[in-house]
Amino acid sequence: MIDSVMNVKACIFDLDGVIVDTARYHFTAWRRLANELGFDFSEAENEKLKGVSRRQSLNLILEWGGITIPEEEKTALTDRKNEWYVEHIRQMTADEILPGVVDFLNEVKWAGLRVGLGSASKNARTIITQVGLLEYFDAFVDGTLIPRGKGKPDPLTFQLGVEQLGVLSSECIVFEDAAKGVTAALNCGTYTVGIGSPEVLGHAHLVIPSFENYRLAEVMQLLETATMTNSDS
Ligand code: BG6
Ligand code: MG
């Protein structure tokens, strides 16, 4: 699949949990909806919603609450949740960009690599604009481009990103915080870096806790070693 990480021409970043921490806003809004429907769910359950599309998240939450709702009524519920979520994200500022992200994006740019976004969120453009990062992106794939049933772990999100960037999958590094997102990137054939814990993201080529204190050169070196070791074994 992959020759050498030194041939990499682009990086694609997931949004939620990689560039900004919006999981708590999703949690607050979904929980409000669940409470209105007469049940609650835990923060541990909320973890399972990371990287999962809006509609799919609703289906999981309804399952946890033991509630069945006709398909035609589901859009009204996701719309309600989204209104509450948008109220939060409209307040976001650059202060909410996760530590180390801006330095890392600058390094990627200075190295002459192209930059893409690969997110399940239909609110991605609002969030990226709100925190002032839009100008960094040469390609932008968000939930508005992904048909139902083709969300992560399907590779489509990253395939479209690679296409928009005009590079090969094997010339691209994807950064992801969700297990399903890592699987999607691997299915696409990119180098894949998990941002978070190895227990959840162990299937990535490399896992780092966050961008804080990580330089691009170091990530590339670690990836080169990890993929060489993997292909030897
Ligand atoms: C992903 C989040 O990035 O986007 C999920 O990790 C979320 O939790 C999904 O459900 C869809 O987001 P939105 O903004 O379209 O509801
Ligand atoms: Mg994410």
How many domain regions? 2
- How many beta-strand segments? 6
Identify the overall geometry: globular
Please state the CA-atom Rg, rounded to the nearest Å. Answer: 18 Å
pLDDT averaged over residues: 95
Low-confidence stretches are: none
List the helices and strands and how they pair.
Layout lengths: L9 E4 L9 H14 L6 H5 L6 H11 L6 H19 L11 H10 L3 E5 L5 H7 L8 E3 L14 H10 L6 E5 L2 H10 L2 E5 L2 H4 L4 E3 L7 H17 L1
Parallel strand pairs: 1-2, 1-4, 2-3, 4-5, 5-6
Helix pairs in contact: 1-4
The structure holds 6-O-phosphono-beta-D-glucopyranose (BG6) and magnesium ion.
Magnesium ion binds next to loops.
3D structure, described in words:
- The structure is a single chain.
- The chain has 233 residues and is of the alpha/beta class.
- The protein has 2 domains: 5-21 and 95-232, Rossmann fold (3-Layer(aba) Sandwich); 23-89, Putative phosphatase, domain 2 (DNA polymerase, domain 1).
- It has 10 helices and 6 strands, in the order E-H-H-H-H-H-E-H-E-H-E-H-E-H-E-H.
- The protein has helices at residues 23-36, 43-47, 54-64, 71-89, 101-110, 124-130, 156-165, 179-188, 198-201, 216-232, and strands at residues 10-13, 114-118, 139-141, 172-176, 191-195, 206-208.
- A 6-stranded parallel β-sheet has the order 3-2-1-4-5-6, sandwiched between helices.
- Helix 6 (124-130) links the parallel strand 2 and strand 3 (139-141).
- The protein starts with 9 loop residues before the first strand and ends with a helix.
- The relative contact order is 0.17.
- The model has no long low-confidence stretch (mean pLDDT 95).
- The structure holds 6-O-phosphono-beta-D-glucopyranose (BG6) and magnesium ion.
- 6-O-phosphono-beta-D-glucopyranose is lined by residues 15-16, 26, 49-54, 57, 82, 119-123, 143.
